[in-house]
Amino acid sequence: MNELMAVRSLTTLPVVTLGGDAVAHVKDTVFDASAVRITGFTLTGRTLLSGPLPQDLPWPAVHCLGHHAVMVRGREALCDVPLSVARRDALHGRLLGARVVTDAGDVVGTVLDVLVEGGTSGRVVAFRLAAHRELVHGSRHRRHRVYVPRGEALSASGRTLVIPARATAYVTDDLPGFAARAGAHRDRGRSAPP
Amino acid sequence: MMLFSRVRGLPVLTPGGADRLGTVRALTVDAASGRVTHVRVRRGWRHGETVLALGTVEAVGQDGLVARPPAGRTEAPPHRDLLGSRVLTEYGEERGTVLDAAFDPADGRIEAVLTTFGEVPADRLLGLGDHALVVRADRPHRL
């Protein structure tokens, strides 16, 4: 399954067991340190005033990530963590708002959103950037929102992401065009000698 | 074969027709096994609701149900209404809502569930909870 989903749209998705019960809502998506894949979700309760839950949902316990719900096998999929730990994980694992720098040293923008593969994969595919003018030429009165593929050689340190300079050649501002280009980018990355 | 929407509102009589227990309000379903397990009977606003296990129901006809009155209080699982519930595949995608369901009155086996996206065979049902009816799908974007 190769379904792209924006991480900001995952917030407020219900966490539903295969028995049909909603047990929580997604609050934040947590990524691993090198921004390769989702490691889990922090949760809130189901009602308006219930606030954050002292439990989180690790990615291995997710049955499937869909457009309308995060499916889990049962209630026991949620694991107890102290709220402080959940909050710290969410802070460390957040990508939204991080600065994006190419390996040539140019600052190209900040991360607005992260595209991930749904289903059971949870892999980070691309970033949606608020692009600086070095990356996208054109009217300076227009706000540029572009998709940049994740690239194989990406590294993350703190709140800065470093992407390979060649990844910026695959920048697009529409999602369907991006899906086609990301495939080309991946193929070229494989065939190129290291 | 009987439809859920047809059964709702039918009168429930004791054997011999001597007493009237009330009218059918809803059917409680165990989605994992694909069976109707209990019948919820309402007898006016002062008497509240009686729960009858399907085993005590002797006959289901077009014009009413015949059932033995319960001896004591029946232990029943929490009720979730099948009709009108949201349908969700195990891949986390919504597939409309339940319009109706057909079941066999003799043993309570559900034969098919009719949703706004089409018919779902009963062997695809995984569970019915407070959020949705979860159904099995072969692959994403298909029912």
From TrEMBL, chain A:
UniProt domain PRC-barrel: residue ranges:
94-165
Query: In the record, what lineage is assigned to the organism producing the protein?
Result: Bacteria, Bacillati, Actinomycetota, Actinomycetes, Kitasatosporales
Q: What is this protein called?
A: Sporulation protein YlmC with PRC-barrel domain
**Pfam annotation, one family:** PRC
UniProtKB/TrEMBL annotation, chain B:
What InterPro entries does the annotation carry? PRC-brl_dom, PRC_barrel-like_sf
Q: Which residues form the signal peptide?
A: none
Task: Domain (PRC-barrel): give its ranges.
Answer: 2-70, 80-125
Protein known as: Sporulation protein YlmC with PRC-barrel domain
Species source reads Streptomyces griseomycini
